[in-house]
Amino acid sequence: MRVWEATVGVDIRIGVSKDGSAPFGATDQPGDDSGPSNGIVRTNDIITYDVNVNVVGGTAENETFTLTAPEGTEWLQLPTECTGGGSRINGRQLICNLGSLTNQSQVVQPSLRVTGAKQNGDTVQVTGTVTADNATTPNVPAPNPPITRVSAAPRFDLVKDRFEHRSVAAAAPDGTSGRVFYYPIAIENTPRDPSIPHRLGAEQLRSPLSFTDDISQILEGVASPDARLYTWGKDGPGCWLPSYEKFGAGDQPGGAGGGPAFVTDSGAVSCAQSASGANIDVTLTGTDTSATHVPSRALWNSLPAGNGYVASIMLAIWIPDTDLRAAADATGGVVRMKDTLTGFSPTSTSGQTNVDPPANNSYQMSNKLSMGLGYDKNFVLTDNDRYYAPGSQVLAYVIARNQGLGVVDPQIACDVFDKTQMTIVAARADPEPAGTKVQYAAQPTRQTPQQMATQTCGDTDGPWYDGITAVPGGAAAVGRVRVVGPVAGQSARYLNMEFRIRDDARLDDRVRNYGAYQDANTNNGNWTLTGSNPDLADCCLADYLLLSPVLARIVKKTVDPGTNASTTQNKDQIVTAGTTAKFALYPSLTSGGKPPGPQDVTVVDTLPKYLQYVSGSATREPSSVVENPDGTTTITWVYPQTVPGTSIAPITFEVRADPAAPAGDLVNKAVIGTPLDTSAEKERTAQRQLTVVEGKGLIVSKRVVKPTVIIGDRMEYTLTADNRTSSALSTIDIIDVLPHRGDNRNPASGFTGRAELAAAPTPTPAGGTLRYTKAAPNGISLNPNAASNGPGGTSTWCVEADFGTTGCPTGLAEATAFRYDKPGPIAPSAGVSLGISLRNTDQAAGDVYTNRAGAAAPEIALPVESPDVPVRVVAGCAGDFVWLDEKRTGVQSGNDPAVPDVTVTLTGTDDLGGQVRRTTKTGKDGKYRFGNLRPGTYTATFTQPIGYTFTTKNAGTDPASNSVAGSNGAGDPFTLNKDTTDSGALIGVNCDLNQDAGLIRQHQPTPPTPGPSPPTPSPSPPTPTPTPPTPTPTPPTPTTSVPPSDPVLPETGPNTVWPGLLAAGMIIAGIAIFLVARRRRDT
């Protein structure tokens, strides 16, 4: 274990940045809060602290502060600055290791939630200490930590009229017939002001809670003398907490357990009735009324957004049929019922009385003893997504609802579908009382939507079979399903079906499903058919699906600190402007039974304005990152050739909230797509938001004017320093060190040449002093208060008037950094901005120029720095191949020999009017390339080698295979354009790599064959002359490029002269010998 020498001093201060979040109320009365800086915080609201730590005397190793919060509070999350070992939240303690800090201060802004366990008038005080491995005084306490007072009041509403009420037939223990009426009841935490979330300022209630169900007017304004608690049912003795095991209304939350569909804990419920017909007393003991958690949905349905349910119970009352008939006889068959909750006036934990609004306490309903049924027909969709792939399984149902009190028997519910689009797998009735049958019938041929929409399921519409396999032709032949049987009063019966989308289903057609029904009490006993347009099948006893060969879907989450994509709980995150957060994307590609081949999957994530992508943070490197003109950023990933059904690894990446970001929610949107997925974009979209809390103090931000520039353009930045304190600053001092190689920024700058100021920075408002230095950039501190930036420091700062004097730059081009000192007073919410313009005469495509600045003010203990912001340089290009057209077709065949050492000249005019003329030669592979081109119109001209001509120009239909050179070697003019996104953001400049040239060898002249010579008289016999042997020709060696010895492409330079002369001499000598020998033979 390393032992550090105690050499540095550390210190800590704790302040309150904000003691609450908007929206705020008009007063500071109990349960209310008028603003973020008044020393008052509501329950379930957030306090953001300024924890200011520093180090003097050197480098503090593992500088760590520890905060301890009081009971009834909880830390939201570990700040992103806490990256050192041991950083964690341990109950009410927050431990933050900042790593190594050198002679600097740092502000961290942890957020603390005041839970509903706090009472009105309680106080919140966070204490803290700071230490370091080498601190001279360890565990230094924070002096005088601030105290914040809690504001809370009880605001709970007893609710009875909001949920679905049902009744079922049930006999009393002695056999008396009657009905059980189920009454869902809830307690909801409500806001005083509808514009303020209900949790803010809520105070818990003292246990137990009690109220009375007044049934004195339950039947036609009078009591039911025999009405009593339904104590003999299976769910409980007259009252219970609803759940998936115990009966609850579909739109009612569960009674305990937390989670999306349940309140935290309704407590133990009991109910009592002194006698039949008497009112019922209900008591809840141990109810959790903190409102820290509320359900987001009901047991079987949705809940209104922003609900505040803390308790949910079910009350069951049994009434004999004799009482119901007596009430119905007096009103022509209608039973009018009403009961009211009274006596709910609990006190809060601080002794305040809860006033229950009475508007929701009564429930009234009218029931007929006998009435028509209601029906519905739907597919069961996942996340409301209508798209399915062929081969997928899908569920559907037809429901019959009996709103009357009597049984309807028989009732027929019918389902009709296109057997050429989907096949029945299974069907069942739920519930399935005695006498219920599910039956199947064939569909002889494919039916039109109009034919299917008018089909019925009567006995004569069969034949009907009791099983799928009993139908001639089996499942593939079935086109109708029906259920026949009774439907009990005040209940519903489902016909649930499972289908499989056929592998050969028509992708361009809807998968339609129609319903029909018939019973004696509805529509005069006639069949009721769909009221939808048959082609649409989009309502009224009809539903539809859409088909896509593959389904690309995406989920988006926040990654909680200390977790990863696999372990995150996707908690709502609050980030301070200037800090980072992490997102996770979970793409998927699925299909049905016969998946198509591999697909390119594209994921596009759009960051809103004020969220910036942290370069290099993604677990999968993006294909592109584009900053758009409107301030948004588009990040694109491509998964090439992905097989449907295979797992796709999630992506995590970091974002930084701009230091200048205003408070509020920033929504991040991701869209996934693939060429074969025809589903709507909304089905392929996921969103997640971050809540941004404004920073406090001196805030420095930097943005680029254009994140991508064309070669030759200037790199421009806007630097802003804002006063986010509550008082004026006497001055703001800013230092900006220009991008340089080895600057270790993110991303690191990388370029040839040197980045220099194109002009003096332009401050707004004016009035400050600009100074410059030529010190080595790696040695310049961004802290204006650093000793190196003071008198006698290593960085000498000079005004323009001193340029050229000792220690000063000779001009702007030699400056490596600039400094701007803006005198005050600088009022709260005011600041200064500077426009910065850089240039580099040696720019090249791919250059990156990343800028960063620092600032300080006398009233702010700590210096601050801006985020890194890069500018990238792009350019176009032209090229690229010269080949030997041996086949003389004018079209490349793919294995043509390359021609090296051919001169190519590029001429033209760029978009700025500049004249361009460049020359290069082809390499051994016949390739050439002109890079670093601006948009413009250009021409490539090829110098014709000796012994060659150009092949036919533009002979084929594919520009990539043609020759562009005319007989004079010049191609046609071509244009390079900017490449931009749909929003106009620059991506790059395009390249034209189709400027190819084909060459053809010229025919070599063949020497003429000498004719016979006239005989020459000879006075004496000729002297025999030996005949030289005939040389054997050597076959040429195959090659992909023209041989270097080819006389039409001579090398140049001193080494090529003598071999050439020697070869020429040998050729002449050979011809002479040949002619002499021939003449002698002829003679």
UniProtKB/TrEMBL annotation:
Residues 1049-1083 form the Gram-positive cocci surface proteins LPxTG domain. The keyword Nucleotide-binding does not apply. SUPFAM superfamilies: Hypothetical protein PA1324 (SSF117074). The chain crosses the membrane at residues 1057-1077. Its main location: secreted. It is found in: Secreted. Residues 19-40, 1000-1053 are annotated as: Disordered. One of its GO terms (biological process) is carbohydrate metabolic process. Keywords: Cell wall, Membrane, Peptidoglycan-anchor, Secreted, Signal, Transmembrane, Transmembrane helix. GO terms for cellular component: extracellular region. Residues 1005-1038 have a biased composition (Pro residues). NCBIfam families: LPXTG_anchor (TIGR01167). This is Gram-positive cocci surface proteins LPxTG domain-containing protein.
